[in-house]
Protein: Squalene monooxygenase
Organism: Aquilegia coerulea
Amino acid sequence: MWLGGVFTMDVSFNACVRKLHPFQSTFVVRLEQGTVTSLLEENGIVKGVLYKANGEEQTAYAPLTIVCDGCFSNLRRSLCSPKVDVPSCFVGLILENCQLPYPNHGHVVLGDPSPILFYPISGTEIRCLVDVPGQKVPSISNGEMANYLKTVVAPQIPHELYDSFLAAIEKGSIRTMPNRSMPADPHPTPGALLMGDAFNMRHPLTGGGMTVALSDIVVLQNLIKPLRNLHDASALCKYLESFYTLRKPVASTINTLAGALYKVFCASSDQARKEMRQACFDYLSLGGVCSSGPVALLSGLNPRPLSLVCHFFAVAIYGVGRLLLPFPSPKRLWIGAKLISGASGIIFPIIKAEGVRQMFFPATVAAYYRAAPVKEERKKNVCL
């Protein structure tokens, strides 16, 4: 049952099939669309959801409810401590009939004051996302946005895209979206589990949200697979606490990388920040492990937070080395010290918010070793 961010599945064993094939089961799924308005709780246990369908208020009950109602979630407050930060907004345009400098590749332009993204979405269309720092963007209705894009952004984009960029502005199909960031801070609640952007968000600069979501689904699938009884809410809640630890290597690596890259790529008047930004670009341009390593982290192929920290500080050290060669000076030594300090000030707060122990030493967390409370039962229900 699809309920606007909440899935309800009725999964039952078929007795006839089990007599013929004792290791097989059939799954009966009922699909219904509606809008969830609230969780149904009883004595601190989530029993299901209240939702509206066809103008009528209805209820859906199941022993496990998985809430995944997105970044605008109205259900997360009872399941986590949401600390949502909005560092910037994306202004979106569709560019038509033009070619990227490197076809079939995504492009990040290190603009002023912040990055500009381009990537193909069809054979003739390119999506452009202009990052505007802060929670307020120029008004679209009174023409401020069009003027901002023409005067501030347009001079910074590749010449291959310039005419199409101006044409998209004149066409007027401009959309805006706030960029949200929220560390995962769950309240383990019997009968419920939180997933997706309702649970954890990162700056969309790296496009890592779907990678984290799919990784979380695999982790949860492996946890639920051996279960045959979901009706002991307390035991199930204790067991599923391991989800929040097992997801950390992939999720925290991508979250930290997204937040750190955004801060590094934003323009700054500080000389040390300028050097860090240029060092990051030049480090990636070196190729080899300096390029493939960050890309593996970005894509989730290398879910090791320690590798991320090593590459991040390798960029900082590379930047300091560029400053000090061929001859160091007191001024350059001072900028180099500020560069290392600034790099630390960028990445360590993000790591702290993600959780140092769960991020780097998940095997030391007790929930990492939780065993499944497996009990055979003829029927089981899952509300997703």
